Amino acid sequence: MRKFSILWASAVAVIIAGCSTKHYTHSEPKMITLKTPKFKFADTGYLRSDGMSVELELFAAGMAVEKITMNGEVCVSAGCMSEEKFVKEYLYRDYPSDTMRSVLLGRDIFGGKGKEEMCDGRLFQFIRDDEMDIMYRRGKGEIYFKDRLNGIIVKIADLDANQSR
User: How many domains does the chain have?
Assistant: First the structure.
C-alpha cells in the first residue's frame, strides 16, 4: 500500500509540473531594447509566443536576467499582476491594458489609430496628443515603439537583420 501511495504522489507531481510549463509555438532570438521609467535593458533575448500568450526572456552576457510572461496576467521577477497594472506601472498610465502584449506580438495598438502602410510593407502608427507622442512601426524583422513625451522605447529586432547592417 505504501508503494502505491508513493507512486500515486509521484505521478500527480509529474502531471502538475508538466502542466505548469507553457510550450510556445514560436521562439526566436532577438536583439531587445527596453527603456521605461521602471526598466532599462539592451541585449539579446528570446521572444516566445503562442496565440495570445507571450514570453520575453532577457539575457545579459549570456545569463538570463529577467522574464516577462503574459498569459492572462503579467509575471516579472517582482511578481504577477494584471496587464492593466503592468502597463500603468511599467509603461504609462493612459495606455490601453493590451499595449505591451500588442507591441511584443507586432499587432496594432490603440485600436489601429493613426495606422499607415508604407510601400515596402512596413506598418506605422502615429499617436499624438498632450499626454503622448508615439511612433510605432513594425515589419522587415523589427518592432519599434517610441513615446517621446514619456521616455519609453521598445525595440525588438531579428538577430539576422541586426547583423547584416
Answer: 1
Domain assignment of residue 150, given as a range: 22-163
Give the neighbor-by-neighbor strand order of the sheet with 152-158: 79-81, 74-76, 63-70, 53-60, 40-50, 26-35, 152-158, 142-147, 133-139, 123-128, 115-117
Answer whether residue 125 is part of any domain.
yes
71 three-class SS: coil
Residue 82 in grid coordinates:
494584471
Cβ-proximal residues to 3 (8 Å cutoff; 6+ apart), any chain: none
Residue at 131 is within a domain: yes
d(CA 141, CA 151): 23
pTM: 0.81
Instruction: Determine, yes or no, domain membership for 30.
Output: yes
| Statement: residue 123 has pLDDT above 60 | yes
- Report pLDDT digits (tens) over 79-119: 999 999 999 999 999 999 999 999 999 999 999 999 999 98
